[in-house]
């Protein structure tokens, strides 16, 4: 399933937030969205997920979601959003229950996603017993359980320490290499963007406009070993963003 964001603009009251955003997310592709604070990255993700409607422009969906997809567009948030009183399997089964899936069928799906996210041994654990990285794995397992066409990931690693982030990045790449999923991935972290993105959409400060779409052809599973080559791209991204990031930062300081 492909998603086309077609000339999307949005304003909240008097504030222009996004302006003329057009790009394509192809099936099996990870598109990263970067840009200064407040430029509209999360807002754009909400439009793609259909949670809100833009002032103008369209989100077009081409093709069908994977067979058996319960929820074609599924979010993964920074704060994991787990129910603290439910075990790991209970958190995953919750979304299946929402779709009326119980018993043996639910167990088979839970087994599968916990195995894929290396959580099989933690099935009965409660969120408070898990590290931040493990909690985010549960959130990823829960997202995978609905067999989504596209995962909408809003800074999924930003609440984690740098070592855990690195481990989860490796896990995401391994997961993608085994079975290609599509994702729209919002991040502030340029190193993450160059490790994960097939395409990186660089937004200007608010109102967010596309400054550049940077494609990276290097296979995802080779990137960890070719960091030096990726650094050139990372520097290019930072050069595109630096002045605007500083201006956005000053703007936030003024408000405070
Ligand atoms: N529901 C809303 N009502 C009014 N204004 C909003 C709403 N949601 C977001 N905004 C404003 O829209 C702008 C873009 O917000 P958004 O959260 O999408 O930016 P962002 O790029 O994701 O920010 P950050 O990088 O800091 O997470 C901000 O100025 C924000 O205050």
From TrEMBL:
Domain ABC transporter residues, every copy: 3-230
UniProt xrefs under InterPro entries: AAA+_ATPase, ABC_transporter-like_ATP-bd, ABC_transporter-like_CS, ABC_transporter_ATP-bind, P-loop_NTPase
Keywords: ATP-binding, Nucleotide-binding, Transport
Gene Ontology terms, MF aspect: ATP binding
CDD domains: ABC_NrtD_SsuB_transporters
Family statement: Belongs to the ABC transporter superfamily.
Name of the protein in its database record: ABC transporter ATP-binding protein
């Amino acid at each position: 399933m492909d998603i086309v964001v077609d000339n999307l603009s949005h304003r909240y009251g008097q504030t222009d937030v996004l302006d003329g955003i057009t790009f394509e997310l192809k099936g099996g592709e990870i598109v990263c969205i970067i840009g200064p604070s407040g430029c509209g990255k999360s807002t754009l993700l909400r439009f793609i997920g259909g949670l809100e409607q833009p002032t103008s422009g369209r989100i077009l969906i081409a093709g069908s979601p994977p067979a058996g997809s319960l929820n074609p567009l599924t979010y993964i948030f920074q704060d994991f959003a787990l129910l603290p009183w439910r075990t790991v399997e209970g958190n995953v089964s919750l979304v299946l229950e929402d779709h009326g899936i119980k018993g043996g069928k639910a167990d088979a799906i839970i087994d599968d996603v916990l195995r894929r996210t290396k959580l099989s041994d933690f099935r009965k654990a409660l969120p408070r017993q898990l590290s931040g990285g493990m909690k985010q794995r549960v959130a990823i397992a829960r997202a995978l359980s609905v067999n989504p066409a596209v995962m909408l990931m809003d800074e999924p690693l930003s609440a984690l320490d740098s070592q855990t982030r690195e481990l989860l990045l490796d896990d995401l790449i391994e997961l993608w290499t085994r079975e290609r999923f599509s994702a729209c991935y919002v991040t502030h972290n340029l190193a993450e963007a160059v490790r994960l993105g097939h395409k990186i959409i660089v937004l200007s400060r608010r109102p967010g406009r596309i400054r550049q779409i940077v494609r990276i052809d290097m296979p995802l599973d080779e990137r960890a070993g070719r960091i030096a080559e990726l650094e050139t791209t990372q520097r290019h991204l930072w050069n595109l963003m630096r002045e605007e990031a500083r201006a956005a930062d000053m703007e936030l300081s003024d408000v405070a």
